[in-house]
Specification:
Elements (H helix, E strand, L loop, with lengths): L8 H4 L5 H11 L4 E9 L5 E12 L5 E10 L1 H23 L3 E6 L5 E4 L1 H7 L3 H4 L4 H4 L5 H14 L1 E9 L5 E13 L2 E10 L1 H17 L1
Antiparallel strand pairs: 1-2, 2-3, 4-5, 4-8, 6-7, 7-8
C-alpha cells in the first residue's frame, strides 16, 4: 500500500465526485449523515455499493475539527440480494403461469404457505382463505391422521406421485394427480406440490368400464 500520510482524502480517492464533497461539507457543518446502500463508481469504471456514515469530529473546545468517515463495501451483499430478487421473480412467473395448480406446504403445520391463482380457482377460495387452510381440510378421501402419515412418508422419501381427491369450498369433489417434492423454503423444509386435475379422465375411464360391462 502507498503512503497516504500528508495527502488529502481526495488525492487518495480521485473517484470521489462533487456529490460526496458536498456531503463532506454538510458533515463539517455539524450534520450527522448515514446511508444504508449507495452506488459508488470507481475510477477504473467498476461500480461498488457502500454503506456509509459521516460524523463530525469535534475538538475539546467544541469546534468541528474534521469528520469521521465510516464506509463499508456491501457490493457482494447487494449482488446476492439482486440475484435472489431475480430468482424470486422467475419463480413467481413460473408459479402463476403454470398450467396446473401449484401449492407450497409447511411440513410442520400442514398449512399452505403459498398457492397460485389456479389452485384458488379450482377449489373456490381466495388466496387469503387458502393460506389459512390445512391439507386435511381439502382432502376428500383420507382422514386427517392418514394425511399426516402420508406426508411423513413423502418427507422421508423426498418426493412422491399419487392420486387422490380434493373437495372444493362449495363441496364439489375433484380427482387429482399429485406430484410433490420436498424443498427448503425460508430455512426449513417445505413441500411443493403440483395438482393436475384428472376428473375428466377418471369419468371417461368409468364410462368406458360401464360400456364394457354392458356389452358383456
Amino acid at each position: 500500500g502507498r503512503d497516504i500520510i500528508g495527502h488529502s482524502h481526495y488525492d487518495v480517492f480521485p473517484e470521489i465526485g462533487e456529490r460526496w464533497k458536498a456531503l463532506h461539507q454538510r458533515a463539517l457543518a455539524g450534520e450527522v449523515l448515514h446511508c444504508e446502500e449507495d452506488p459508488f463508481p470507481r475510477a477504473d469504471g467498476t461500480l461498488d455499493w457502500v454503506r456509509w456514515d459521516l460524523v463530525p469530529w469535534r475538538q475539546p473546545d467544541g469546534r468541528i475539527g474534521g469528520i469521521i468517515i465510516f464506509t463499508e463495501v456491501i457490493t457482494e451483499r447487494k449482488q446476492a440480494e439482486e440475484a435472489l430478487q431475480e430468482s424470486e421473480t422467475r419463480y413467481r412467473a413460473l408459479f402463476e403461469n403454470a398450467a396446473d395448480a401449484i401449492v407450497l406446504l409447511d411440513l410442520q403445520t400442514l398449512r399452505f404457505i403459498d398457492c397460485n391463482d389456479l389452485a384458488c380457482q379450482r377449489l373456490g377460495y381466495t388466496r387469503e382463505e387458502f393460506v389459512r387452510l390445512t391439507v386435511p381440510e381439502i382432502e376428500a378421501t383420507e382422514t386427517a391422521k392418514k394425511v399426516k402419515q402420508h406426508i411423513t412418508d413423502i418427507t422421508a422419501r423426498g418426493s412422491a406421485a399419487f392420486e387422490t381427491q380434493h373437495r372444493s369450498k362449495g363441496g364439489a369433489v375433484f380427482d387429482i394427480e399429485v406430484r410433490a417434492n420436498v424443498i427448503h423454503f425460508g430455512g426449513r423444509p417445505a413441500l411443493i406440490a403440483i395438482w393436475h386435475d384428472i376428473t375428466a379422465r377418471k369419468q371417461a375411464e368409468a364410462e368406458r368400464e360401464r360400456l364394457l360391462h354392458a356389452i358383456e
